[in-house]
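Hi V.,

Quick status before I head out on leave. The structure for the redesign project is tokenized and pasted below; the design run finished overnight.
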């Protein structure tokens, strides 16, 4: 079964790469994996896992980066990696066509999401679960693990990435629904910390 899956994936990559865009999807995916880990499963706390992320969410994020509509700071991982030149997500996707972005999003959505193995505080996680159920569960169901919500997957994501993402949303640096903004505005720093530990606890 695994051999058949890999063969099918290789065939799909080849079909995408030979499409009208003229961009080699296999090379684009290889470049993505260089930061996000093999098959999009990150090993670094400030770099998110993108495997299993809903197509709409991932494609939308890449469009935002291409339009410089999201913060494009270089991650700590890339800054400390001397084997690759520092870059930003905006630079990475600047020349990607709509078709290639959509193909990349489809490719990673079809791969399994793997929760990050990381330390967390059990008491904070319990407090965070209560906060999630009260404020976030309607849009991020199943503890933030349900891809059908098309609200990304936050359960099992790396804590460093979650902390940075919360900071960007709370600072108004990323587009978000007005309801989410109101919910975030009502959270204290301690509330955010508890939520991060709750999402990290789901492994």
């Amino acid at each position: 079964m695994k051999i058949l899956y890999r063969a099918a994936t290789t065939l799909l990559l080849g079909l995408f790469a030979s499409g009208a865009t003229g961009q080699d999807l296999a090379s684009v995916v290889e470049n993505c994996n260089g930061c996000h880990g093999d098959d999009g499963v990150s090993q670094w706390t400030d770099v998110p896992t993108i495997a299993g992320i809903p197509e709409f969410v991932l494609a939308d994020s890449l469009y935002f980066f291409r339009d410089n509509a999201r913060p494009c700071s270089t991650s700590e991982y890339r800054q400390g990696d001397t084997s690759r030149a520092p870059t930003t997500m905006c630079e990475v996707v600047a020349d990607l066509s709509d078709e290639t972005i959509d193909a990349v999003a489809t490719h990673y959505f079809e791969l399994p999401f793997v929760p990050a193995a990381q330390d967390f505080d059990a008491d904070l996680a319990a407090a965070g679960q209560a906060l999630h159920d009260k404020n976030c569960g309607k849009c991020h169901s199943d503890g933030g693990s349900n891809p059908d919500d098309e609200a990304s997957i936050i359960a099992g994501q790396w804590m460093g990435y979650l902390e940075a993402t919360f900071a960007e949303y709370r600072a108004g640096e990323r587009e978000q629904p007005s309801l989410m903004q109101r919910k975030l505005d009502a959270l204290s720093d301690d509330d955010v910390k508890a939520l991060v530990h709750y999402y990290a606890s789901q492994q």
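Above is the designed sequence. Residues 1-21 have pLDDT under 50 and may be disordered.

G. will cover questions while I'm gone.

Best,
W.
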